[in-house]
Specification:
By secondary structure, the protein is α/β, with parallel strands linked by helices. 42% of the residues lie in helices and 21% in strands. The chain has a nine-stranded mixed sheet with strand order 9-10-8-7-6-5-4-1-11, with helices on both faces. The chain has a three-stranded antiparallel sheet with strand order 12-13-14. The protein has a two-stranded parallel sheet with strand order 2-3.
Amino acid sequence: MRQSCFSLYIHIPFCSSFCDYCDFYSVIAEKKCDSVLDKFVKQVIEDIRCQFEYFNVKEIVTAYIGGGTPSVLGAKRFLMLLEALKSFSCFAPAEFTTEANPESTDEEFLSACIEGGINRISLGVQSFHEPSRKAVNRIGQADMLEKCLTMVSHLFPDAFSADLIAGFPYQSKKNILEDIKRLLDYKPAHVSFYSLSVEDGTPLEENLKSKQLSVPLCEEADLMWLAGKNALEKAGYEHYEVSSFALPGRQCLHNLRYWHMDSWLGAGPAASGTLIDEETGTAKRFTYKSDIEGYINTGRTKKPERTDYLKLTTFEELDKKSLIKESMLMGFRSRGGIDREKFRRRFGMGIEDCIPQTLKRWNNDNKKIMFFLNNFLTEAFAEIETLQIM
């Protein structure tokens, strides 16, 4: 069954500086001249146009602009992108989010967001603790964070999210609780609260290997995260997904689409899209290469078509067994678990038919599964491998 309703993710691969723990694809914006940023915006608009036509998109239900740091584009370029999106008849998302970082967010940028139809901001705070920020090369100081939060909370009341991370160098449980207290003064509707992940090949990994830095031990970091979780819940935030907390009714609709494995499109270098075939219980996925130069030079001498962008993508076929696994990986991240009726419609079998022994061992407890997701999935995937799936 060919889909007509999608979510849309747009990757903006530019940052003001690189944080030492980040492994997302981006380049430093200051090293790119204005003409490159202009070309990128024009090209991502054309990419989206091509995808809307190629996939016969009738409705975009949620949209999310991430990165990188979308706010480094500046108000003028960003508004150009937003106005182009509004010109597409299928584009009227119920939730339209952009990420932003405090060092590149000002009133002009936020005004452009409002004018362009953005109704939700996701702000990268990470930590107010100065030694931790400096240790991972996080740009800006706490007073800058507070100034930005004041603006965002005024212009997007009850409609902004903020990210925090536990496990940074020089961080303690006391720091985490102070971060949460300071953040909640601005009344975010949503908080994404992560445990630090040390990714291969990042400067942070190198600094840890060379003993220039250290991070809290796993057990200590877990206790820090749990203390933060308890503080957020005590303040009225529902822990509805592994790393997500929201006031009642303020869950991130776009992320829920991912966790429910609904179809989405992706535009921009390193972005990916996944198209679910409900009739066969299979999917197709495309992923753009991490190549800004190749991306912006696509179709420079002519109006690009979808086939031009296909040269910059890799493709993956997800058979039924693979999609079942991925549906579980994503679906059990949330407290509500998988939509079991939808799962049965999609795959022609229930979850209890796929992993009866695993569910029995875990007492069918979604909350427990969410807390120990990796352990659960290891068991579930092993059981799925034994299935004969047509």
